[in-house]
Amino acid sequence: MKIGPGCTLEEFIAHALAVEFEAARTLRDLQAAFRERGEDELASLCGKLAVLEQEHYERLEARSRGLALPEVDYRQYAWLESHDADCCPRDMVLHIASPRALLEIALKAEQRAVEMFERAAGQVKDSGVRDLAGQLAQDEVEHVRWVMAALASTPRDFTDWEALLAEGAGPGLALGAERRLRREPKPGHH
Fold first, then answer.
1. 38 and 51 together in one domain
2. DSSP code of 74?
3. 117 in the same domain as 33
4. What is the pLDDT at residue 167?
5. How far apart are the first and last CA of the chain?
6. In the 8-state DSSP scheme, what is residue 77?
7. Which residue, of 18, 69, 83, 189, has the fewest CB within 10 Å?
8. Are 86 and 178 members of one domain?
9. Is 2 domain-assigned?
């Protein structure tokens, strides 16, 4: 979303609802994925964050009652899917990606939310939007800290995905099939 000085309350809330909906939805999915793997601490963190994001969504929804909100392409705020849906299915990512990779996805999404809300708090002329955006930004900064702390104690993934792709084996086969088809041939290979 391009947030500029003229952003209205309706525009801001419509986009903030999309951000919070996607955050709550994906964090619940991450919670389930971590629980399936026996990663209880990470499941607990994602569950806690999902509840907070759902509360943000519900507060925004209540505040939007009676307002004519513009339509928003919710896909622009997707955590696991690309805008053109030319990527791995959501469930595959949740089941194959390492715990660290999933946390990195969460971190990037939370950081994008902070940037969006801070930009609105700093640029928008409407004081109601600035105040609301500032509150949301503060909450999201806290979420970023929690995810960063979890990342600090989560082992790095040393899987050599390129080697798996080259061999056509394991999850690399599923994740990289399209990528291998599009890859430029190496010099001297046809």
1. yes
2. G
3. yes
4. 66
5. 43
6. G
7. 189
8. no
9. no
CB contact set of 16 (below 8 Å; sequence gap of 6+): 56, 60, 117, 132, 133, 136
Q: Which residues span the domain enclosing 31? A: 9-158
Same domain, 99 and 166: no
The two three-digit tokens of residue 96, written as one number: 């194959």
- Number of structural domains, the chain? 2
**Domain co-membership, 118 together with 37:** yes
- Do 121 and 175 lie in a common domain? no
- Rounded Cα gap, residues 188 and 190, in angstroms: 7
Same domain for 93 and 68? yes
Overall pTM > 0.85: no
Cα–Cα distance list, 7 to 59, 79, 128 (Å): 20, 24, 11
Q: Are 60 and 72 in contact (CB under 8 A)?
A: no
**One-letter amino acid for residue 17 of the chain:** L
Q: What is the pLDDT of residues 164-190, one digit of tens each?
A: 556 655 554 445 444 444 445 555 554
Q: If DSSP codes are grouped into helix, strand and coil, which group holds residue 86?
A: coil
